[in-house]
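User: Ribosomal silencing factor RsfS. Structure?
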Amino acid sequence: MQAKEAVLQAVEYALDKKGFNLKLFEVSELSSLTDYLLLVSGRSDRQVQAIAENIKLEFKNTYQELPLAIEGMDQGRWVLLDYGEFMVHVFQEPVREFYDLEGLWSEAPEIELERTEA
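Assistant: Predicted structure:
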């Protein structure tokens, strides 16, 4: 599966758990770490954890693909799923606003998503 295809599938998995304010950036020209960054918001620690867990389980069950690393699952304020070619950041909205990854990656092209809310 191509990286763009995979990250677009992650969008659907995030929407399945009512993730909102989804933004997808292509950072391959600006970063050697990954090609795509997906930012997703959740309304509570439980929802942030549910979104991240759903993405992880769906990739495992459907594609036998596990993330290279997972950070922040215990607290559920900001969870990072690193799949190598793409990374998914799932935040509670105040944490997302504080760290402002959109601003950090403002030079990266944003990929238009058909839906950004469930």
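The two ends are 24 Å apart (CA to CA). Residues 45-63 form the longest helix (19 residues).
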